[in-house]
Write a structure and sequence with these properties.
Protein name: Regulatory protein
Strand content: 5-15%
Distance between the termini: 109 Å
Radius of gyration: 39 Å
Number of helices: 6
CATH superfamily of one domain: Winged helix-like DNA-binding domain superfamily/Winged helix DNA-binding domain
Shape: rod-shaped
Largest sheet: 2 strands, antiparallel
Oligomer: single chain
Order of helices and strands: HEEHHHEEHH
Strand order of the largest sheet: 1-2
CATH topology of one domain: Arc Repressor Mutant, subunit A
Length: about 190
């Protein structure tokens, strides 16, 4: 025979279950609130990071546009220009090349860029920027087409070969001729330091 539960026992069981469910619900609410607070903190951190990244991108975009605008105004050296071709009788024939005043080959007796730059710097008492060197060479040699990029490359080439020294002051770069003290052996240069 089956035992039947009294109505008071059933009510007590339901009351216990409801009490347990209510306690579990409140515990879950506490856990969710803690998770929500953590996620809000993480969201605030991500928004702050986004602000920094947007500012960096704006700086990079402005500097990239400055580089782009300066490169748009720069002319392509004549050595890189393509030869014009004319169609003659169904075949393509190259047009005669115009005289190149900016040739990389030096004519006999004509000084190289390296010689011009090192000669100029050796006569200077203080370091000069590539723009200053370019201006001086333009003034001294008006028959030559002096470009800042060529002078800068020549100066860096001189640094690589030990003919010139690079001096950095903040974002500026200055160059000078290698002095006699700098040209001495490393061992002699270390002796005064000891």
């Amino acid at each position: 025979m089956a035992e039947t539960a009294s109505p008071t026992d059933i009510s007590a069981n339901y009351a216990q279950r409801i009490s347990d469910d209510l306690s579990a619900n409140r515990g879950e609410q506490v856990r969710i609130r803690a998770e929500l607070a953590r996620l809000q903190d993480e969201l605030i951190s991500l928004e702050a990071s986004e602000g920094v990244l947007v500012q960096i991108r704006e700086v990079l975009d402005s500097s990239a546009s400055a580089v782009t605008s300066s490169s748009e105004t720069a002319s392509v050296p004549s050595a890189r220009r393509r030869k014009a071709r004319k169609a003659v009788g169904g075949t393509m024939v190259s047009s005669p090349e115009s005289p190149n005043t900016n040739s990389t080959r030096t004519e006999p007796g004509r000084p190289t860029w390296r010689e011009l730059v090192t000669e100029f710097l050796s006569g200077q008492r203080e370091p000069k920027s590539s723009a200053e060197v370019t201006a001086a060479l333009t003034e001294a040699y008006p028959q030559r087409q002096v470009q800042v990029a060529v002078v800068r490359n020549t100066l860096e080439h001189g640094v690589a070969h030990g003919l010139t020294e690079r001096h950095r002051q903040g974002r500026s770069v200055f160059y000078s001729a290698v002095s006699a003290a700098s040209a001495s052996s490393p061992q002699e240069a270390e002796e005064p330091a000891q």
